[in-house]
Amino acid sequence: NGRIMGKPTDENDAIAMLTELCGDIHQVYTGVALFWNEDGRTCKHTFYECTDVHVSPATEDEIKDYVATKDPMDKAGAYGIQGRFAAFIEKINGDYNNVVGLPVGRVYREMKSKNLY
Question: What is the pLDDT of residue 56?
Answer without folding.
Answer: 98
